[in-house]
Structure formats: structure tokens, C-alpha cells
Amino acid sequence: MLGAIEAGGTKFVLAVSEDGLTVEHRVSIKTTTPEETMAQVFAYFDKYPVTALGLASFGPLNVNVRSKGYGSITNTPKLPWRHYDILGDMKAHYPDVRFAFTTDVNAAAYGELKAGAAKGVQDVVYWTVGTGIGAGIVSNGKLLQGYSHPEAGHMLVRRDPRDEFAGFCPYHHDCLEGLAAGPAIEQRFGKPAIELAPDHVAWEIEGNYLAQACMNVTLTVAPERIVFGGGVMHQPQLFPMIREAFKEKIADYVEYPALDDYIVPIALKDDAGVIGAFMLAKEA
């Protein structure tokens, strides 16, 4: 049996599967402190013994297998979890289980590659746009991570000329996340993104920033497909805006697939992270 942990900043999703594609059972628990949350994690997997487990966590993480701190959550703003050795704790409780360890957004990228919107390709960038912005990158069928993992949500972008918002990122202010994540939209316009009309100028500005993100990854890692998920991307009008702005910005400098097949919405929805974690566990 395969296990999956999708450890998010708000909740942990715990699941088991026989084949890695079908979720046999799942529960969701609140993310509070390591002591409280992990006690529930251990209780769950004590009932559902697994042979391999994919652990996909919020970060930043230490994913460098040659590093002394490998397996730890590092400088997270969730202070109780800072420098917590989440992988080490899991291994101590389940010494006979094989583990795969990566970020939550990497696992979602892998899930979409294996069974979702990127099935059939080898190179994909998965963006999640919600409370924050993150990117999972798969290159030649393998997750892109080495000394660290991608933190592409904090890439710098050119400011939209209509946008005077300072940016909400406490580290960089007007990076991609600071300008285009859900809280940036709400703080800029005074109401949650879900309450803005489909023709609101907010979406043109958002499309501009996300098109820049697509251009940047196209010119650096050249994916075969770019997949978007997250709460902000529940706005279907965003996709044609992103594609059109991307086409204008890239200016035919490089070739890319047909845009309707290149910049696409997530297919697995809420299952992307756990399916990806199952797949990584299976390979472990």
C-alpha cells in the first residue's frame, strides 16, 4: 500500500492507495503545531500501514540529500514548524517504510505529469496561484531540485503601468507573489478576488503578471506544457488573457506549442498533490 502526505500551511491531507491513482481513503487535519499535527499523522498511518510514502510539504524545505539538514522545513513563516525535521520524524516512526520527499507544489506538478493535464509530456511547469504563488518544475521526467527547490513565485516581474500597489510580499514587496497572489488582489482592490466581476481590470493586470511568469519559465526551462492551479485560477477568463499577453511578450523569439495546449488549467483539482505523492512513493 502507498501513502501520501500533502502537508499544507492550513491543513494536512493524509491518504492511502493500492495503485497510486485511486485514493482508497483520505482525511484532512488542521495544521497547528508539529506536536499536535504529527500525532494525528502517526495515528493515521498506524491504522493504514504502508510500504512507501510520498511526503510533500509546504516550505521552504531542505531537499539537498547531501546536506546535514535534509528533510527539514526551514525558514517558514509558520514559526512552530521552523527547522522541524519532518522527514526524520517520519522515518523514526516508520523505519521500514521507503520515503519520497519534496515540496507540495512539486508533488502536484508530478501528479499532473503522470495523470493530469501534462500526461504524455516529459517537461512541465505547474503554477499554483492562491494565498501564495509557487511553481513545481519537472524536467525530462524528473523533479527539478538539487541544492534547493524552485521558489519561482518570488521571481521579479515588470510592474503593470496601471498598478500602483506596493506589493504584499514581506521579503521582496513587488515580486510575482507580492503582486499577483490572492492577498495582493484583495489588498489592491479592497475585496476578495472571488467578488470581482469577470471584466474587472484586476484580471487584465493579473493576466499580465502571470504571462510574464510563463515567459520567464519558457525562456529558462522550456517546458512542453504550463499548468495553472490554485484558487485564483478558478477564473476561466484568465486563460485567454494570459495566452494573449504571453504571445505579445514572447514576440515570436522562440517556438512554443499551440497556446491552447501550452498554457492550461489543472486537471486533477484537489487530487494533484496526493496523486503526485503516490507516484513518487511508488518510485521510491
TrEMBL record:
**Enzyme's top EC category:** transferase
**What EC number(s) does its UniProt record assign?**
2.7.1.4
Q: Which reaction does it catalyse?
A: D-fructose + ATP = D-fructose 6-phosphate + ADP + H(+)
Q: Which residues form a coiled coil?
A: none
PROSITE patterns, alphabetized = ROK (PS01125)
**Claim: Magnesium is one of the keywords in the record:** yes
Kindly state which keywords UniProt assigns to this record, in alphabetical order.
Answer: Magnesium, Metal-binding, Zinc
User: Which family does the record claim for this protein?
Assistant: Belongs to the ROK (NagC/XylR) family.
- Name recorded for this polypeptide: fructokinase
Gene source species: Lacticaseibacillus mingshuiensis
